[in-house]
Amino acid sequence: MNLRVANTTRGTVLAEQCEQARSFFARGRGLMGRDQLGPGSGLLIDPCSSIHTFFMRFPIDVVFIDRAGRVVGLRAEMPPGKPYAGAWHARAVIELPSGVIVASRTEVGDVLVLGGS
What we know:
Blueprint: E1 3-7, E2 12-21, H1 24-29, E3 41-45, E4 50-51, E5 60-65, E6 71-78, E7 85-86, E8 92-97, H2 100-104, E9 112-116
């Protein structure tokens, strides 16, 4: 099931169709092997507190959230081949197309709601 990711603090939407990576294999694979993330899409990796972009082909925006959906870290336009990005107290990571963090005005402390779409 894909999720809609909304920032209730800002009244914006980060993704209309966010895939979920919950299995060990899906979390490990992430976005590797893909050519892009389309507009309005994303990938929720749960549980997860840090990521890398080795073997990726495109930059991404990364949002780290805690168990309550509060944003605890951001990494805008993380380029491919970077060794590590993480956030203290993160429970899950949402990987998004570059530019979504700026366009949605998402900041640390905002609350995100993930729901069925």
